[in-house]
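Think of the structure tokens as a kind of shorthand, similar to the way a musician reads notation: each symbol stands for something richer, in this case the local conformation of the backbone. In the example below we present two proteins back to back. Begin with the first one, reading the sequence and then the tokens, and try to describe in your own words what changes along the chain.
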Amino acid sequence: MTLLYKQESYKIQGAIFEVYKEIGTGYLETIYQESLEKELALSDIPYQAQKELTIHYKGVPLKQTYKPDLICYNNIIIELKAVHRTKSSQRDRTRTPGPNTKLYESYQYKTRPSSKLL
């Protein structure tokens, strides 16, 4: 399987690793989100936080919306998860190893973003 937006994903992962190196583990997701937003800005990575996305079912918009933690480059969804230990079921769905950061291929929404990072 080919990774979409390879260069952009690599740059985002670099920002995520920088946050991890700076503050480590043990915090709530809100701390990591704010830290990552600052690092993305420092790295000149365009992003939007908590943008509400409309989901369609068979061409009809749903009442429920989806608000990912971050959208970078208008195409890459970032979902932050602060966990004590990654479950094997989470590891099985991932392609890129890293502390607290995994690339998920399983989310395929009919929204503009077409890549997802967790």
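Once you have a description of the first chain, move to the second and do the same.
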Amino acid sequence: MAAVLAGLKACVTVVTLFAQPAIARPLTPADTLAPRDLGEIAVAPDGHAIAFTVTTNNAQANSVTTRLMLLQTSGEPRQIAEGASRMDQRR
């Protein structure tokens, strides 16, 4: 049970760290590409670490970058891998 609670606490931390600030203006087309997308989340069986993906769009370069992140319950998230692809090559 403690491992599950630790995993849930870490998930809340991940979502809080990557939340986008509120925008006090009308939504623009550029705003739809600006947010980071928190993707898949996997909790370690012992509940002491979470792996997750964060995807960002770059409209100028017409590309998407996905980062694989690792968050241990006792620390800050750190990037462990990164990959980029062009938007027109995605399926």
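Compare your description with these statements about the second chain. The beta strands are 37-43, 49-58, 63-72, 78-86.
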